[in-house]
Design a protein that fits this description.
The protein is of the alpha/beta class. It has a single domain, classed as Immunoglobulin-like. It is built from one helix and ten strands. The strands form two sheets. Strands 1, 2, 3, 5 and 8 form a five-stranded mixed sheet that branches. Strand 6 and strand 7 form a beta hairpin. The longest helix has 19 residues.
Length: 117
Amino acid sequence: MPKRSMFSVLLVALAVTVASTTAFAGDGAPKISIRNQQFTPAQLTVPANTKVELLVVNEDGLPAEFESYDLSREVVVPGHSQVRIFIGPLDPGKYGFFNDFHQQSKGWIVVRHPAAD
């Protein structure tokens, strides 16, 4: 197979892989807001075995830190701004997170298999 054709096949395979493993990308990303130093919603459900783009919006004027030992994530979210975090693919279960600058603020990512049709 010529090199150019092999490159095209690999490029298509990569595009299919990325499309099949990324959920909620772009404007449809699940969102967690930080308001009055609390996470809203405090529990978010996402599909199992899928890479998910999570939007964390800090509506407060003070910085916050989205931190999770379970998810191996630690991201500072400046006041009145937002960050995007990729999590997964994850096994079904419950994964905790908290605001390291206000540790009473806690939440959960619940990972479930999609319901069978």
